[in-house]
Amino acid sequence: MIRTALIAFTTTVAVTAIAQIAPGERRSGAEFMSPSTQAMQKDDTSNPGMLAALEGETLWNAPAGNEGKSCASCHGPADKSMKGVAARYPAIHQSTSMPVDLQGRINLCRSDNQKASPLRFESRELLALTTYVALQSRGMPVSPPDDARLDPFRNQGETLWRQRFGQLNFSCAQCHDDNWGKRLGSAPIPQAHPNGYPIYRLEWQGMGSLQRRLRNCMAGVRAEPFGFGSDEFIALELYLMSRAAGMPMETPGVRP
Amino acid sequence: MARALINIPAKAAKGQIIEIKTLVSHPMETGFRPDNQGKLIPRDIINRFECEIDGERIFAADLYPAMSANPFLTFTLLAERSGEVTFRWKDDRGEITEEKRKLVVE
Amino acid sequence: MNGLFGIPTRREFLALGAGAAAALAASPSNATPEAMEKAIREYTGGISPMPGRVKIDIPVLLESGSAVPTTVTCESPMTAADHVKEIAIFNERNPLPNVAIFHFSSKSGRAFAATRIRLGDSQKVVAIARMSDGSLYTDAIEVVVTLPACSEDFG
């Protein structure tokens, strides 16, 4: 059914990726959702992502690793120390001069400072901590660092964004820059902004990272998805955050 | 350990009907879903929810696998007197999650 | 291959080859309108509920069957002598016909409950209210469930 829709889509829509979305035209993924799903996200007792944030708060204060330190031991209350942090990531990690995303930064903190084993990608704990940290930036504008060392990685991300992938031979830009607001099957095509992650996706019936969502998209165009934590995903995250600069953070987002 | 979010006003006027929202963390495994090896994952759901004020029943629910993961329940309470409101969720493994909130009725 | 209840969705079925037929045959069979009627008969003790008083609400536009916002209400004075004891919800196409039974008392103030339910496909959902005098009322709603794009099980 969806495959048929995709084929119809390729033949009826001009598929040359050119323009970026004008700043005034940018819309959060939440605006493409039904009123009931929007209501689910807006009310903190209704938004299941808040359960992950609640677990993240417990983990923030729980000692871990050989140092016996919790996140709070160094950073204190997250509502002060983590305010605005998620809105800036990915950022350059000073000791390696390489970009790292928020999940990666949490795991570096575990291995370097807590002497704890890194948390597995998409594990309940890593998603919970990331959600709790990102919640402290809710309502703040996406603010990519003005750091020239990030430019080559952002450029790599934009190249990947415009590159065709998979058996269906689609780029990200063809759907999300050129055809947002149209429908793919019964679902509206959003603009693919990263400002609500980690999200509670109804289809997953659980939380997931931006990388998990990107993997779903790649599977959708019948491409072999990049690996969790890969350089490609960090580059794409960097590009997506620069593309969404100024939009308010809304973690934890709810999406269909 | 399941975790719960509860939205109940701290104060209510006598005779007021207040709305209470609850959200609890639980996979609500249906028992109809295969794992990666094709073997059915055993059913594990919250099958019962109860809400009481000082031991007196306000609202209860029997739940089946058709309830969404992380069950969300909203219901009402007639505020007659101050008391302690207890929220209790029980799952198939017998695990009980209990939360309490004070309600002041003026 | 894990539609909402581990049953292949139509889309997955189309995407699967002939080898999938065996897997499909091994999947649990969905409830049927007959199974729902049977579950309702057990609940009502064979008495036909009357239309009216109880109301079930589900939004017309649904993006996923995994969390369908569902509200039930029933008109009643909700006094100790005259109140709604229960509202039960049934469906006709999930693996099981039962969804939930809500129990009320005069302390509830209103016969009202809102929740989120799973619906494996477009189907009819039925609510039945049981009053303190034993009388029964019913309401039903036809629900259309659509599927999300670029889903996990697509690849």
Describe what you observe in this structure:
The complex is a heterotrimer of chains A (256), B (106) and C (155). Chain A is 41% helix and 7% strand. With 256 residues, chain A is mainly alpha-helical. Chain A has one domain (1-256): Cytochrome Bc1 Complex, Chain D, domain 2, CATH 1.10.760.10. In chain A, strands 6-5-7 form a 3-stranded mixed sheet. A two-stranded antiparallel ribbon of chain A has the order 1-2. In chain A, strands 3-4 form a two-stranded antiparallel ribbon. Mean pLDDT of chain A is 93; it is low at 1-17. Chain B has 106 residues and is an all-beta fold. Chain B has strands at 4-7, 11-12, 17-24, 46-53, 56-63, 72-78, 83-91, 96-105. Chain B is elongated, with a radius of gyration of 16 Å. The mean pLDDT of chain B is 96. Chain C has 2 domains: 1-29, no CATH class; 31-148, SoxY domain (Immunoglobulin-like). Chain C is built from 3 helices and 8 strands, in the order αααββββββββ. In chain C, the strands form 2 sheets. Chain C has a 5-stranded mixed sheet, with helices on one face. A 3-stranded antiparallel sheet of chain C has the order 2-3-6, with no helix packed on it. The longest helix of chain C is centred in the N-terminal third of the chain and has 12 residues, at 33-44. Residues 10-27 of chain C have low confidence and may be disordered. Chains in contact: A-B, A-C, B-C. The interface between B and C is medium-sized, with 33 and 37 residues. Strand 6 (72-78) of chain B pairs antiparallel with strand 6 (111-117) of chain C.
